[in-house]
Specification:
Layout lengths: L1 H17 L4 H17 L1 H17 L4 H7 L3 H15 L8 E6 L5 E8 L2 E6 L4 H12 L3 E5 L5 H17 L7 E3 L5 H8 L7 E5 L2 H10 L12 E5 L5 H13 L8 E7 L3 H12 L5 E4 L14 E3 L13 E7 L2 H11 L4 E5 L3 H10 L4 E4 L19 E2 L7 E2 L6 E8 L7
Parallel strand pairs: 3-4, 3-6, 4-5, 7-8, 7-12, 8-11, 9-10, 9-11, 12-13
Antiparallel strand pairs: 1-2, 2-16, 14-15
Helix pairs in contact: 2-5, 2-7, 3-7, 5-6, 6-7, 10-11
């Protein structure tokens, strides 16, 4: 635990140094990291193969194995995201809400970094690169604690990060990895309120609850998605099926994948068998409420009655819930009862109906005629993300560069004194 406190204290010292760094220097780190990802690719993939094999042997869930696995294509995508972050404007150069008083006193807000980020993540080792890229670009430092299932991969990425920091002339302590699987070290990080400014957990509901319960530091939670699409009576069947298929099948193990389809009763006889018939070809299993169940009887489909907790389950697999609703308000009521506030959408040609849905559904991302799979920092133009926040403070949705900043007031006068 003392080592964790030492790493956090070193990150605090590095933060003070980072505040005086230039945007060019911080971008230099990102460019160096992208190059190191390519240079160290064989070592990264070899380390990841150890983790994947151990995960399979230990009976890790298929969804978790998929999140854990790195491939050359995925590594290239990670490097592209790093370069995309490098190409974005420096958030710390932004000045906004400027005005001048009648007496000549000038005021504006200037973006500043949040400080030292404590990030605790499970399974997905690429999170280490996302955190490092966004933290350094926005002038923050970070102390990271990865999951034991990705220990070798995390070490490989830590080597990439350290090499890139050194190449850019930035303090190597600016991004630290807690290389331990001891739960006490996670607790130690949550108690480092003298050095760490914000805790960001990325993992399951248990991790989020643990951080909220034990942390002495503000916690931003999110990333747990029970995502819905409501099918209105006028929705285009063929176009809608493509959206549903993409939202459910493209990558079912992630938080923005579709979990439940809500079908307007007037069109259930047409939509429910069409959904089942299309998605069963992709190996999707179905959990249906009593009103949807008769329409889901498609030969060869794996269809079961929905259990008491099925609509409260983030599937992270090829399982889809289907329920029939009587109205827009009934759909919204279902979402309010079961959604985690991540990503929910409507398929309709009616702008009034769509706008009513968008206004009343209080999720971090709401959709009209689009797949929930777009709730992602890269897809939403942020380059990458440190997390998807489902809270209302201080940020919502994918957290990119701006979401890792606060601001300070700058007041410029000519020896003004208040009357």
């Amino acid at each position: 635990m003392s080592q964790v406190r030492d790493q956090a204290a070193a990150a605090r010292t590095a933060f003070r140094a980072l505040r005086t760094s230039s945007g060019e220097q911080r971008n230099g780190f990102l460019l160096a990291m992208a190059a190191e990802l390519e240079a160290q690719r064989p070592a990264i993939l070899a380390a990841n193969a150890i983790d994947v094999a151990r995960g399979v042997d230990d009976g890790l869930a298929t969804a978790m194995v998929d999140r854990l696995t790195l491939t050359p294509v995925r590594l290239q995508a990670i490097a592209r995201d790093v370069l995309a972050v490098a190409a974005m404007p420096d958030p710390l150069s932004e000045r906004f809400d400027a005005f001048e008083r009648s007496d000549g006193l000038r005021l504006h807000k200037r973006r500043v970094p949040l400080g030292v980020l404590g990030v605790i993540f499970e399974s997905r080792p690429n999170v280490a690169i996302d955190i490092a890229a966004l933290a350094i670009k926005s002038g923050n430092t970070a102390v990271m604690r990865g999951g034991k299932e990705a220990q070798h991969s995390n070490r490989a990425f830590a080597s990439v990060i350290c090499s890139a920091l050194a190449a850019a002339g930035l303090p190597v302590a600016a991004v630290a990895l807690i290389d331990s699987t001891d739960r006490d070290d996670t607790l130690a990080l949550l108690r480092c309120d003298e050095s760490v400014d914000l805790i960001i957990p990325r993992g399951g509901a248990g991790l989020h609850a643990y951080c909220r319960r034990e942390s002495r530091i503000p916690v931003i939670t999110g990333g747990i998605g029970i995502c819905h699409l409501y099918i209105a009576a006028d929705a285009d069947l063929e176009a809608g099926l493509k959206v549903i298929q993409n939202a459910k099948v493209q990558r079912p193990t992630v938080c923005n994948a579709l979990d439940t389809v809500l079908v307007q009763r007037e069109v259930a006889a047409r939509w429910v068998p069409a959904i089942v018939g299309r998605l069963m070809q992709d190996g999707v299993r179905f959990r249906c409420d009593p009103d949807a169940l008769p329409w889901a009887d498609v030969g060869g489909a794996d269809v079961q009655p929905a259990g008491s907790e099925d609509f409260d389950t983030e599937w992270l697999s090829l399982t889809l819930g289907i329920a029939v609703v009587d109205s827009l308000q009934a759909a919204i009521a279902h979402i309010e009862a079961h959604s985690t506030g991540h990503s929910d959408g409507i398929l309709t040609a009616d702008p009034d109906l769509a706008n009513a849905f968008l206004a009343q559904v209080d999720s971090a991302a709401v959709y009209w005629n689009a797949s929930t799979r777009f709730t992602d920092g890269s897809e939403m133009g942020l380059g990458a993300e440190v997390a998807v926040s489902t809270q209302r403070l201080h940020a919502r949705g994918p957290m990119g560069l701006r979401e890792l900043t606060s601001y300070k007031w700058v007041v410029e006068g000519a020896y003004h004194a208040r009357a």
